[in-house]
Amino acid sequence: MARFALWSRRRFLNAAAVSVPAAVALSACQGFSRPKAGSDAAALQERIAGTVVVKGDETYETWREAMIWQRAKANRRPDMIVQVESAGDVQEAVRFAAANGMKVTTRCGGHSMAACFLRDTGMLIDVSRLDGIAVDKAAKTAVVGPGVFCRGLAERLAEDGLAFPGAHCGTVPISGFLLGGGVGMNTNAWSSGMSVFAVNAVDIVTADGRLLRASAQDNADLFWAARGGGPGLFGVVVKFHLQCFDAPKVIWGATYVFAFDALDEVTRVMDEVVPRLDKDVETLVAIAAAPDVPFGEPPEKRQRIYLDVNAFVASEAEGRRKLTPLLDQPLIARAIERIENRAGNFDRYYSDNEASFPQGHWMGDAVWVDDPQAAMAVLKAHMPECPAPRATPVLLYMGTNPLPDAACSRIARFYLAYYMEWDEPAEEAASRAYCLKVFNALKPVARGSYINEMDQEGRPQDIHECYSPQAWKRLAALRGQWDPKGVFHGFYGES
Ligand SMILES: Cc1cc2nc3c(=O)[nH]c(=O)nc-3n(C[C@H](O)[C@H](O)[C@H](O)COP(=O)(O)OP(=O)(O)OC[C@H]3O[C@@H](n4cnc5c(N)ncnc54)[C@H](O)[C@@H]3O)c2cc1C
Q: Nearest to residue 200, comparing CAs of 16, 404, 360?
């Protein structure tokens, strides 16, 4: 059986990301949606190689919808969408916005579950076409555009025997993923638990239209903000300077499927055994419906527990040795299906996960937890009421690395996400209400939320919990300093 004929979080998410290329395809439309001659927008269009689309234009709604990767299209409309072709275009667009009193947001892949980049006023800058990759093999570094997809990056780096902790889903671009922290592959070993700590510098256009390099040496406070500030960042990143790593010779792994009644024991093993594994072993648990059991059956009948483990190692022998403490657990004997001794690489990893899957309407939320057993008990209690036909909690061990000093300042031993997918727009309200109820119930056991995957629309008042109190305060102070006129929109729910 193919590995992910079973299930994977990544396959689920990848499939939903099918619409990402739609925005790229739209660039082919350039030229038939030009702003009216003589208008301010036409003046901007003349100065940039990219495309300016204004609310009211014939093609505006197509462009707007294409900015959002999924089928649920948030009902917000910026005044202008500017798809840029270069850093220079970004500078022009930001200067234009500032001069015309327009607030700016940025999108790249449009994967934000709440489409947090979409506001009812101002300018949306689309950076998805900035997708260059330059690798320095000897230095083990790469300079990449925000629009580079994680799979494309992995493929290019593999040619030089290198790797980067990209997203688990290959169709996510590195842009928003890294700026919000990045729960990436093998981050416990490579990058202090979050992928953004493998970013050495960013090139960023600031509110006054300057293009600056921000690193530990240059504009260090801007660099601090870019490493985790996510949707609250006051600038547009046009290049990421990445630290790369020697590619593992093999990704050695296994997947075990359990009946729902094993959930408590699987969670206990995650809590007590998995933290004892080496840092380059990544373990996640997902709960997903068995394909042959109809929606409406109770969780005990319908849900299966998937335990997926991967070691990023130099040899098969090393992989076997590193998985042994987990595979020796009596729990493993209870598996009803299994794939063992899986020798993979990044190509296979992403390919396995990119099997087709019906694209739908979806949302999710994610929190950090130190006590997965308590958190899972909360989820379990709510599962029978879940209105979404496809709903998948995912628990991933993150490690206990102290985070370097940066805006990305909240993490716990475990990442716990819950993804919900439905078919008809009318089903959305019930899923949203349920998701909100579950995550409010999780608050007593959560240690904050993950900015890239939390429900910013449903819980805007909790966005500050994605950051330590000190980091939240410093982000606000830096915003005042770097964007005194408020050219950039703040976090969702702020101005
Ligand atoms: C299918 C799928 C799989 C995912 N897999 C993972 C995963 O494995 N790990 C993980 O951590 N997360 C994952 N996520 C969440 C993902 O990290 C976020 O949705 C992230 O925002 C996606 O990046 P994006 O470029 O599409 O961001 P967008 O949705 O385009 O933008 C989100 C926000 O990021 C900011 N932003 C984006 N680009 C720039 C820029 N160049 N300059 C300034 N600000 C910018 C903007 O403020 C914007 O509001 C996944 C999401 C989906 C839908």
A: 404
